[in-house]
Task: structure prediction
Amino acid sequence: MAVERLVYDGLQPCPYRPGQIARMPLRQQLRALTLDETDERFARSERRVGTCLYRTECPSCTACEGLRVPVDDFRPGKTQRRVARRWEGHARVDVVPPSWSDEHLRLYNRHKGERGLRGDDDGEMTAASYVGWLVHSCSLTVEMRYHYDDHLVGIGVVDLGRTSASSVYFYFDPDYSELSPGTWSALQEIELCRRTGRRWLYLGLWVEECGHLSYKANYRPHERQRGGSWIRSGPTPPRGDGTPGG
Result:
């Protein structure tokens, strides 16, 4: 019995490198993946959209590299520790099954609109589109809700395998931008992996020339996938360099 079916395999403008052509075959999963199967797909730098998985298979470019953080080796840098201190005594993180609500939708659309992330052809996210992308899943998925002084300021969606996790998407209240909620969420996803005994956090794709993906390289050490192999980038910091919140 087939496990997946190809639902799209066209050429399209590259979202990361202007002027380039991208190919990202989209494969719908016909059943839920096991935890071990999910780990295998993460290790191939596959990303999830609803119940589909994709990875770049571009005809003339190999700039996209998967990036993952080895949880046991990660130590936050000075800026990341400073961000963690801003949240001390104010933060609450709830890990729950993924869902949607009017509050989710308002927050998502504010994040896209007020931060200039909506494309010229994009309208506001609808409930059906939100559920289809971030709630329906082919893997074990959790939602991380970030509160600051009991105000919901951000939501992250994370897929889980047996030994790894993959950051799917994070959005936040633009009024709280000065708290660097994106950095805080990544630190908390790493902490979730550490707390649950998972070895890797996959942060998705990294492209050297793409500015809005550059933040991923700040989580060190990390590994990038090149030619099918995962290659370490950056030295392992000393054990005394601190932990999130330190």
Remarks:
- The chain has two domains: 4-64, 67-241.
- DSSP finds five helices and 14 strands in the chain.
- Residues 181-195 form the longest helix (15 residues).
